[in-house]
Each structure stands twice: as C-alpha cells, then as structure tokens.
Design goal:
By secondary structure, the protein is an alpha/beta fold. It has one domain: Ribonuclease H-like superfamily/Ribonuclease H (Nucleotidyltransferase, domain 5, 2-Layer Sandwich), CATH 3.30.420.10. Helices cover 30% and strands 26% of the residues. The chain has 5 helices and 7 strands; from the N terminus they run αβββαβαβααββ. The chain has a 5-stranded mixed β-sheet, sandwiched between helices. A two-stranded antiparallel sheet has the order 6-7. Strand 6 and strand 7 form a beta hairpin. The longest helix is centred in the C-terminal third of the chain and has 17 residues. It is globular and about 60 Å long. It starts with a helix and ends with a strand.
Length: 189
C-alpha cells in the first residue's frame, strides 16, 4: 500500500479488523473495529464469541447505513471474511483492498488503534463477559474521539475541540475510562 494512495483517498477509506479478548472465565471474545481513515474515528464496533461471515456482513451494513459507505475498505486476509462478507461489501459498491499475507503495516491505522485499545485500556481491565467488553470499549471510544490527541491530526482529537486560552480559567482534570485517563479543560473559578 503506497502512502500516496492513502493520502489521495483518506476521506474515501475505512479499515476493518478484529482482535481477540480473553475474559476472566477464559472465554474468547472477538471485537470488530471499523475505522474511518480521515479523522481516525471508530465508525462502528461490536463484540461476539463467534465471528461468522453473516455476522461480519451485518456489521458492515450497520457501520455504513444507506449512502454512507466509503469507496475503499482495507482488510486483512482473515478466513472469517468469506463469500457472504465479500458479497455484501460488493453489493454496497465498496472496493476491498486486501493486505498481503502477514503484513499488518499495510493496514496501519486500524492496527494502531487496536494496539492503543490494548495498551491504554484492556491491559488494565479484567473483562467479565461480552456485555462488559462492549461497555468498556464504548467508554474507551468516547475518550478516543473526544479527548485523546493524535499527532497525525495536529494534536487534535477525531472530534475537533477548540483551544482554550489561559484566560478561560484554571486547568481542571476529568477522569475518563474509569480513571485510567483524564481530560483536562480550563474552567472559570
């Protein structure tokens, strides 16, 4: 994947990938993340103990309702993305860009967010079940979109926020993700 392709089609590109989470009872849960490239925003996520082709196809439909589908969808060669998934993506007029075998750097943005999810959240939480993982990821993505800065976005968040001048007041800390992270804002005394 060439960087010029990514630069030219950033607004038309989304990426999809899955990762495994082990629960406190040693159950394997699979989390799916659909990431928009333009602002590094998680468009959709879900969790299942059994990622079938039909489930994956349904997730793509839920991620891109009506006419919101991107032009390109980056994904790896996971066997879970079978004919049912490919047919759904084709019916939505999305062109799949499939990475080379064992080449996670070719889908770097979604691999990066999965690494961040693990390092910044899941390495500090014991997941009890599917519902709990869904809730933890939901809270993390709220933090990711509104508070976590990204160098590639000019040290802004996926959902831009205004710069607060010192005259706006003292810096106040707001705990997020169960206190794992904090958001800092200026508030008048």
């Amino acid at each position: 994947m060439h960087s010029s392709f990514l630069q030219n089609h950033m607004h038309d590109t989304a990426a999809v990938d899955m990762f495994v989470v082990v629960t406190a009872t040693f159950q394997l849960l699979y989390a799916l993340v659909v990431l928009g490239h333009e602002r590094r925003k998680v468009i959709h996520f879900d969790v299942t103990p059994n990622p079938t082709q039909a489930w994956l196809a349904r997730q793509i439909t839920e991620a891109f309702p009506w006419d919101t589908a991107p032009r390109f969808l980056l994904r790896d060669r996971d066997a879970s993305y079978g004919p049912t998934f490919c047919d759904r993506v084709e019916a939505m007029a999305i062109e799949q860009v499939i990475t080379a075998p064992r080449s996670p750097w070719q889908n770097a943005y979604v691999e990066r967010i999965i690494g961040s999810i693990r390092r910044e959240c899941l390495d500090h939480v014991i997941v009890s079940d599917e519902h709990h993982l869904r809730r933890v990821l939901s809270v993390y993505f709220e933090y990711h979109h509104r508070s976590r800065t990204h160098l590639s976005l000019g040290k802004d968040c996926p959902e831009p926020r205004p710069v607060q001048p010192p005259s706006a007041g003292n810096v106040v800390s707001f705990p997020q993700v169960g206190g794992l992270h904090h958001r800092y804002e200026r508030r008048a005394a």
